Amino acid sequence: MRNPATPGAVIESAELVLPLLPPRDLAAAASACRAFRAAAAAVTTRRAADAARGLEPLPIPFHNRVDSKPYAYFLYTPFSLARLSPGAQPWGGSGTRAPVPTWPRPSLDGFPSAVCGCACEAEECGGPRCACADAEADAAGSGSEAGMGSLRECGDECACGPACGNRRTQRGVAVRLRVVRDAHKGWGLHAAEALGRGQFVCEYAGEFLTTEEARRRQRLYDELASAGKFSPALIVIREHLPSGKACLRVNIDATKVGNVARFINHSCDGGNLQPVLVRASGSLLPRLCFFSARDIEEGEELTFCYGDARVRPNGLRCFCGGLGCCGVLPSEET
Ligand SMILES: C[S@@+](CC[C@H](N)C(=O)[O-])C[C@H]1O[C@@H](n2cnc3c(N)ncnc32)[C@H](O)[C@@H]1O
């Protein structure tokens, strides 16, 4: 057995333990000894190089020319989760990149799914004969909520495989993005390559919450946000019947566990992203996905409109910079 006091053993344990630590604990560990300081610096550099920590097909780096924060800390999930498995998630270790888990997507643990799908021949999926195609639905058309598009994709019960053309949103973030710090808005998601109109950008992934839990967290987040230095990322999606009555409400919280969509800032003029509710055959819950609403240049910030309502007291100041900026961020009672 290796002597625990040897420099090699110290570095080995640093390699194992430091990637599990949140920033404050990492800084504390760095002050322990020179070897830990060097190992912690390497962890920080690797974290700043990929917000997605190897869980998306492409790395998504942080860029900060505003202050000294190298990255934002949260647990990464490429898909929304019904239940969280407790425990820390390593981030910034020197091991090889984690395998990309974007295929097959896990089915939503705990949610019932209907048995349905298509049996299309190769390359027929999404076409007129595909049982999963919905002639009414489109990524940029009328949807269940004002400004929200809708789309149907192939799902778990379909005969098609990972390369199916009707699974555009199921293979993770395949466009180059970066997370950029702004003096007023905090972190924001930017295009790191030019995007054509209608390209899939990312899903809004996080924890699925009950409405009761969403309300409880919203109250807490409001308090923390009004004190500054806190950026909540809890979103409520309501799907309406044509009559206008709400029929389904989905609460997704990406504040502590989420994906890169948690960095998308608000724009009062609607922004350059189109939110789309995507429903896969066999899945009862829709997923919120973002597509480019127009051609987007490399370096542009990606934004969407959080909503129209500004009803909660102490609304936060909006810095979207749009011509029609309302001055206050949208906020509604959840
Ligand atoms: C979903 S998060 C977006 C990412 C966030 N900027 C961060 O640093 O993590 C939403 C929060 O970002 C900030 N934010 C988003 N859009 C903004 C805007 N137009 N003006 C000012 N702050 C904004 C607010 O703090 C808001 O509560």
Automatic annotation (TrEMBL):
GO terms for biological process: methylation. It is found in: Chromosome. GO terms for molecular function: histone methyltransferase activity; zinc ion binding. Residues 175-307 form the SET domain. The keyword Transit peptide does not apply. It comes from the Eukaryota. SUPFAM superfamilies: SET domain. Its main location: nucleus. The keyword Transferase applies. It holds the Pfam family SET. Keywords: Chromosome, Metal-binding, Methyltransferase, S-adenosyl-L-methionine, Transferase, Zinc. PROSITE patterns: SET. GO terms for cellular component: chromosome; nucleus. This is SET domain-containing protein. It comes from Digitaria exilis.
